[in-house]
């Protein structure tokens, strides 16, 4: 076991203080002189033809500086491809679809101007529910298309039919996962300044450099005329990768030649951001009588929304990833994505893996019940081993699944809860999870990440990288890597993430990639910089065989020649003040998936087991989730406290959509609860007791053996709760969230059957 | 002659638009939530002992967050060395000396709190006038010292006595140059934020990296915990190198843990900034009868103010530089710097050269008069030649002085004005000037400058350098160099100057150095980057012998392989997104001066000739400066329009202190005009007709042959006007500014004598 100074230690987040004392500057905090405020007009109809937009009254309102509709946008629509338009052209296709934007001297004037824009609509039939999209004579959701089916993929690995023929037992189970929101604290906001032909946008994003490209193309200016400046972010959770806020602010800034702020209201983000993909998933599982999994057939039907944004990608991840935890002989998967007249769907922490694991991991319990095998034992029997290749071609280097399960059972008191039940309706359930540490799903040209390390004359070490800090703690992790490598204090390291004027290109912060992929790039940068410094010090002092240790330059006799700070001063002085700047690059040995979804898409894979203890009140239908034990194999843990924080947050979010969250609509597509008063997100008072624990494997591909942990904690909590409810009262809940109403209904149906 | 695309062209300033349309963000424009406002209490006495400071009432005022006096400052005083203290300790030594600072919720509260601070003073005798400092029994200006004489240097080169013995004519002349202010538009201002143990200061400065050091040591935190972020600056002219505004804001931010803004009033900057060094200069010049200069003796007496800030350095430059234009056999110089109970003096565009040239160049006209030689011919006879070493050891590479004089005479219509006079009191005068393109007077460790060039995937080229843009156009010049080298448009280049978080160390922007020293570093960076790009493209394409021309990669057959932008995309993609970053360094072959002031302190030297046409109203004493012809040998001119702008500005400033500007005090040290209403700075209506012209030598040490032009235009205008007045009415004005009162007095005295 390595002896680290900083790695594996509970280092305080480098941005803790600014978050706590309110000094952090969020997008809405920044202001400029002469700044205008923007407001957006959204469609009130789920589907309608736009006959006319009359802005004449709005533009005449004193204080209104610009009113923009689709025709004012240099590159508005790429409906031919997957994505939609910035502002609706011929039709509006969901309630909330943006129609016009106004920039005015104040928010009040801009709001008033919205009321003066007259849009004539011809209402068209709409498709609101997932089951209706493929019905015969279903209306076409969106203009320029002839079908609502946007994705239809089928892949088969191994001889599925033969495995099903020789199976001793076959179980089938269908689940439904609804639209839910990411629930970030800070609504989307951006402020744009157009100056000297250069557009600078201050905002939050998960993908600064891609946003730069998008802003440039949509606003019709050259890419190298755009700078994106990151502000502090109040969460993202996948929901801030494809927002148009920055584009709109940019368009208005160019149009008006004045700074423009566009901060969306919470209600706007409810109606017009990108919720999760609603899915109906059917799993059929074939096993032998000892419980060895033989084969699995899965059918996915998912809603990508009115326009494709990232829904098909999410369905792609859902299709394959959950199979990775187990040894399967064969699998078959059929995935259909359809359009609905609802807001486009996209990523949410877990990226389809919540839906896929809900389906598979509840089906496994159905099988366990059928075979009368303990569900945890059934999983243990089927877990994939380290150093193998999964059914979808993933190279599994480390895998601590068995240890995770044993630890989870121990921590939840599995045997006691399950087999020594008392009267009250208490139950325990478990579920497995797997995720990828980054993936090549993004820009095919960019498998990896790069980081600049700047070593300054004053001894400060600065990391510059194009990825995003949105609360997950990436800055702290990168600072820890540099501090470890140079033997300095974390506070001697500065980490700047995302300013596109200086940071190297990065595809964006998704897929739990930073602690593996970016940290590797930072690690390599440190190694290069240390070599450069030592070579220079050798030239200056004549001493060779030097090392950097504990912030000092030492020779082979362990004598301290000088401090690192002194060394940097010497070296930079020699270079007329120029700092040492090195680039670290890391490209995982990962490949793009082939047509069938096969291929090793990530450098390594984190695993975990969730276990839930529940008590069901059969009279009210309320499920009390008492404890969630969440045990992760995320390789070496860089910062235990922050890692536990990730687990607490992810589990709590999953608890939310397990028991209360649901973006319900009426048959006109209108939200039944489009505010935080009505859309219930758990508060700390609702929270179950969450126990986070880690099985620390040492992965050969991660820095110091680390894998990743960003998304895993949210995955499989839903299945574990469902399985625990079955253990408690013998009913299988398959329609999330498990609200008292649904639970009561299920109890009634079960009673009827009996 | 080279054929350049961008160099030598009238490229629009890259920061023109933001300055013109008001979008530029100056120090006072930036605000933070919860920001406090600071106000400073200044001494009302020229000299007094501080018996007690009672802040008890002030701290109790609601809204006051901190009151700081000297004892709260980690490193307040280094009076043992040259510099003073941040806040007065035992004594106050000039009217305006800072005593306490207050941070409060509003400026109003802070101002009110100042009135509640009770300071008990024991008034001490003060030294107000330069002539009094060295008098017997003169009071000691400042505590901890035993004499007011802070500098006393004497150097002799050649056999001065022998040259004086063989001289045919010896003339002697004494001039007086008063205190004047730099007259920048924007008073000093800084906003400080202390967060996560890191202090970030948003301000203006001429020396970002030195300021960082100063802030760190004064505030008692590590250097690598300080970031200085440059704001747009409303001028500096030497006056923003040693200001304490940023330090004070930083101290208060640390103390209160809240952002603090400290914007000084114009009045504060009048009383407590750093005006020029007041000097009395006596020149004795020895020549043969043909007018060949043989030797010169000069005595300088200058005021460094109550505490030394940079006054002694200014006196150092004054002592030697002006001799450079001429061939002298020998020189002797004696320089004394004294303390007065007045605000410390420091740099002003020209840095002592205005004073020195005033003395020498008026004395030359006295000699010309004595010898009855045309003063322009007398100068031509004595000019130093290119490729020689001056009396003080300067290596003169290019020198277009003769051509400058011929051009100036032509443009001012010298012969006509001088020798075909009509009735009215019109006169013409000329004066020579020399300056250095940068100098090693600063940090002895740093002879040069360095610049980072970042070539991004999107084709943008960004220069990062630690120097300052304060209006002189450095950003535009650097952008021109990069645009020229890559054959791209200036707008494809971004220039970031001064952010200490990313730019390499630089000593600061003084001494007209950027167009020579920094531009050379940028040029070398371009050459390195081009090589790196081409090597990579050779590796990728297999084609060798490539060149970058007009923004394209071309081969030896001049075929375009791809655009530079395409090439950068390829190369950066190959490096996982990392941009190409190279460091350009330039170290001039200059040395530190020896003890006697001997040595080649700069890579090259700009020269020039000023010629003035005046008309004197003998009844009112008013001098009408009708035209100033300002002809410069600044080597190759990078941007003629901007160069002319430098000349217009510098000449106008010099016209100001020739005719009206003067920081006069009464015998208590109180300013007789401490506002812009009373202290007269010329407006455009006062301005003479200014004709700028250039003799473009091609200097081997400058980029494209460029020398420098920042300071030269302000030098020797005063002498040219004085000489023109002599030509007009036969009196020699030696006491600047030449106000009507002084002119009338001189006329009266002359009449008396006659």
Could you walk me through the main structural features you see in this protein, from its secondary elements to its overall organization?
The structure is a homodimer of 754-residue chains. With 754 residues, chain A is α+β, with helices and mostly antiparallel strands. Chain A has 18 helices and 28 strands. Chain A has a seven-stranded mixed sheet, sandwiched between helices. Chain A has a five-stranded mixed sheet with strand order 7-15-14-13-8. A four-stranded mixed sheet of chain A has the order 18-26-27-28, sandwiched between helices. In chain A, helix 8 packs parallel to helix 9 (353-371). Chain A is globular. The N and C termini of chain A lie far apart (57 Å). The model of chain A has no long low-confidence stretch (mean pLDDT 94). Chains A and B meet through helix 1, strand 19, helix 15 and strand 25 of A and helix 1, strand 19, helix 15 and strand 25 of B.
Q: Which helices and strands occur, and which strands form pairs?
A:
Two copies of one chain form a homodimer.
Chain A: H1 16-21, E1 36-42, E2 48-54, H2 56-60, E3 64-68, E4 91-92, E5 98-104, H3 107-116, E6 118-123, E7 149-157, H4 160-166, E8 169-177, E9 189-195, E10 198-203, H5 208-219, E11 226-230, H6 245-256, E12 260-263, H7 266-271, E13 279-287, E14 293-303, H8 311-320, E15 330-338, H9 353-371, H10 375-382, E16 388-389, E17 395-396, H11 401-412, H12 414-419, E18 426-434, E19 449-455, E20 461-465, H13 474-486, E21 493-497, H14 514-541, E22 547-549, E23 552-554, E24 560-563, H15 564-574, E25 580-586, E26 607-617, E27 622-633, H16 640-659, E28 689-694, H17 717-729, H18 740-753
């Amino acid at each position: 076991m390595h002896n680290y100074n900083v790695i594996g230690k509970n280092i305080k987040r480098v941005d803790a203080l600014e978050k706590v004392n309110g000094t952090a500057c969020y997008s809405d905090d920044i202001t400029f002189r002469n700044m205008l405020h923007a407001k957006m007009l959204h469609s009130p109809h789920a589907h309608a033809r736009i006959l006319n937009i009359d802005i004449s009254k709005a533009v005449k309102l004193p204080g209104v500086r610009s009113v923009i509709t689709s025709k004012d946008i240099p590159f508005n629509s790429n409906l031919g491809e997957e994505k939609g338009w910035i502002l609706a052209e011929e039709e509006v296709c969901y309630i909330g679809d943006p129609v016009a934007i106004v920039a005015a001297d104040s928010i009040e004037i801009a709001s008033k101007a919205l009321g003066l824009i007259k849009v004539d609509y011809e209402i068209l039939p709409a498709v609101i529910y997932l089951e209706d999209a493929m019905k015969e004579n279903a209306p076409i959701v969106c203009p320029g298309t002839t079908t609502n089916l946007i994705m239809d993929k089928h892949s088969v690995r191994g001889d599925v039919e033969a495995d099903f023929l020789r199976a001793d037992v076959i179980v089938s189970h269908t689940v439904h996962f609804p639209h839910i929101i990411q629930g970030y604290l800070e609504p989307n906001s951006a402020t744009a300044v157009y100056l000297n032909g250069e557009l600078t946008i201050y905002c939050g994003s998960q993908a600064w450099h891609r946003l730069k490209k998008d802003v440039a193309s949509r606003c019709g200016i050259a890419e190298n005329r755009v700078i994106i400046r990151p502000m502090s972010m109040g969460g993202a959770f996948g929901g801030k990768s494809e927002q148009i806020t920055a584009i709109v602010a940019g368009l208005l800034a160019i149009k008006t030649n004045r700074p423009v702020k566009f901060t969306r209201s919470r209600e706007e983000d409810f109606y017009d951001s990108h919720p999760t993909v609603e899915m109906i998933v059917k799993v059929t599982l074939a096993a032998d009588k000892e419980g060895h999994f033989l084969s699995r057939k899965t059918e996915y039907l998912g809603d990508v929304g009115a326009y494709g944004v990232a829904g098909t990608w999410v369905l792609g991840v859902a299709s394959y990833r959950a199979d990775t935890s187990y040894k399967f002989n064969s699998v078959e998967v059929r995935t259909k994505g359809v359009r609905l007249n609802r807001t486009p769907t996209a990523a949410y922490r877990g990226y389809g893996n919540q839906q896929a694991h809900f389906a598979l991991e509840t089906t496994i319990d159905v099988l366990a019940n059928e075979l009368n095998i303990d569900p945890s034992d059934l999983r243990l029997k089927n877990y994939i081993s380290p150093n193998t290749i999964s059914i979808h071609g993933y190279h599994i280097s480390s895998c601590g699944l068995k240890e995770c399960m044993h630890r989870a059972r121990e921590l939840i008191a599995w045997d006691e809860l399950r087999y020594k039940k008392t009267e009250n309706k208490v139950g325990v359930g478990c579920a497995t999870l797997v995720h990828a540490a980054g993936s090549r799903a993004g820009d095919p040209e960019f498998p990896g990440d790069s980081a600049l390390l700047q070593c300054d004359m004053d001894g400060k070490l600065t990391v510059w990288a194009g990825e995003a800090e949105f609360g997950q703690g990436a800055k702290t992790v990168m600072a820890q890597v540099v501090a470890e490598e140079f033997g300095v204090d974390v506070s001697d390291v500065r980490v700047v993430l995302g300013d596109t004027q200086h940071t190297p290109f990065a595809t964006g912060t998704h897929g739990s990639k930073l602690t593996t992929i970016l940290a590797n790039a930072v690690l390599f940068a440190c190694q290069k910089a240390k070599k450069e410094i030592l070579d220079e010090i050798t030239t200056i002092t004549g001493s060779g065989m030097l090392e950097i240790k504990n912030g000092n330059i030492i020779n082979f006799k362990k004598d301290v020649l000088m401090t690192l700070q002194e060394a940097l001063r010497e070296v930079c002085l020699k270079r007329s003040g120029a700092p040492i700047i090195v680039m670290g690059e890391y490209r995982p040995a990962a490949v793009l998936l082939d047509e069938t979804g096969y291929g090793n898409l990530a450098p390594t894979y984190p695993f975990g087991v969730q276990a839930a203890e529940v008590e069901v009140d059969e009279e009210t239908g309320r499920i009390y989730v008492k404890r969630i034990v969440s045990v992760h194999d995320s390789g070496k843990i860089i910062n235990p406290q922050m890692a536990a924080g990730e687990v607490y947050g992810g589990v709590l979010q999953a608890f939310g959509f397990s028991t209360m969250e649901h973006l319900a609509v009426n048959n006109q597509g209108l939200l039944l609860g489009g505010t935080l008063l009505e859309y219930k997100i758990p508060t700390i008072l609702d929270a179950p007791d969450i126990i986070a624990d880690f099985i620390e494997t040492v992965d050969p591909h991660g820095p110091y053996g680390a894998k990743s942990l960003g998304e895993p904690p949210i995955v499989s909590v839903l299945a574990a709760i469902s399985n625990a409810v079955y253990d408690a009262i013998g009913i299988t809940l398959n329609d999330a969230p498990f609200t008292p109403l649904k639970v009561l209904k299920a109890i009634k149906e079960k009673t009827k059957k009996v």
